[in-house]
Amino acid sequence: MTDTSPLAKKPVCQVGFVVRNIDEAAATLSRLLDIPKPNVIVTDAPDKAKTVYRGAPTRARAKLAFFQIGDLSLELIEPFDGPSTWQEFLDKHGSGIHHIAFQIQGTDRAIAWLQDEGAKMVQQGHYTGGMYTYVEGPKSLPAVLELLERL
Amino acid sequence: MTDTSPLAKKPVCQVGFVVRNIDEAAATLSRLLDIPKPNVIVTDAPDKAKTVYRGAPTRARAKLAFFQIGDLSLELIEPFDGPSTWQEFLDKHGSGIHHIAFQIQGTDRAIAWLQDEGAKMVQQGHYTGGMYTYVEGPKSLPAVLELLERL
Fold first, then answer.
1. Is residue A102 part of a domain?
2. Distance between CA B17 and CA A98 in Å, rounded?
3. Is B6 within a domain?
4. Is residue A113 part of a domain?
5. Which among A28, A71, A97 has CB closest to B97?
6. Does B24 sit within 8 Å of A140, measured CB to CB?
7. Beta bridge partners of B105
8. Which of A38, A53, A96, B118 makes the best surface tag, with the fewest CB within 10 Å?
């Protein structure tokens, strides 16, 4: 295993918010940022997304909306249909800031490196053109980090 | 009041994490981002910071550490010495992502505009060269937004 972190000097490319009602949240954020309300999209069906949550397949899906400001996108997420890191966050904390994301290459190696640091993989799934992995930071930094990889 | 949001098309300049132990969190983030561990600084004493939390003066202070990656800074915050939005977050949620920040001008007008949208001011304070204000987003988007103004 290399000593270099898979996140070394990488910019944060996304901040993700879990919300209860994506249409209301997107309307609010649209007014706050003075950016047109983006279309709400829905993650792929389970057979395509192949979502795994805490080690088991899940039928969980989510409605998503993205606001791009410069190099950073703000993502709104309204989960439905099954257990997920999004639903878990909503049940524990209510709406709020769920994760920061990094664009990486080599997901498996990145997960192994981060697990070596004490992080835990909590969810993984696929979408057209890529895959994502949520990792819970080590105990000293227990935020959710998202690894995005283009495939 | 103008119709234009004080945050209109502004980039997010900072993501803030509340943590229980800033030295451990900073060491972890330093390894993850492959960036040297920054110095931990301490917010000013109450007579200089003039911190107000939910309408009342507070002696709350915090240890801070900043990691700059491109245009975005990641801020670690370990609160101490009194009630604050940081301590409240830690008590309610544990360590995690507390806020996103925007650099603005005209704090009072910005607060008024955001309150008109249903947001609430939760904390304000001063530091050499500027002031900050934390605002809780409207009900549909209940994340903490920080307004930073250079003075």
1. yes
2. 11
3. no
4. yes
5. A97
6. yes
7. none
8. B118
Of A10, A114, A142, the CB nearest to B96: A142
Distance from the A65 Cα atom to the nearest Cα atom in chain B, whole angstroms: 13
Nearest in space to B111 (alpha carbons), one of B136, B141, B84? B136
pLDDT of residue B95: 94
Closest-CA residue of B relative to A29 is B141
A79-102 burial by CB neighbour count: b if 16+ within 10 A, else e?
beeebbbbbbbbeebebbbbbbbb
Radius of gyration of chain A (CA): 15
Q: Which position has the token pair 């909503």?
A: A90
Please tell me which residue of chain A has the smallest CA distance to B19.
A141
The CA-CA-CA angle for residues B147, B76, B90, to 5°, reads 90
Domain interval for residue A135: 12-150
pTM over the 0.90 mark: yes
Q: Which CATH number goes with the domain that contains B123? A: 3.10.180.10
Residue of B nearest to A70 (CA): B11
Distance CA B151, CA A33 (A): 23
The average pLDDT across A69-94 equals 96
Say if strands B56-57 and B52-53 run parallel, antiparallel, or are unpaired: antiparallel
Tokens 């915050």 sit on residue? B77
ipTM over the 0.85 cut-off = yes
Chain A residues inside the 8 Å CB shell of B142 = 94-96
| Residue B141 to chain A, least CA–CA distance (Å) | 5
Q: Residue A7 domain-assigned?
A: no
Per the structure, how many domains does chain A have?
A: 1
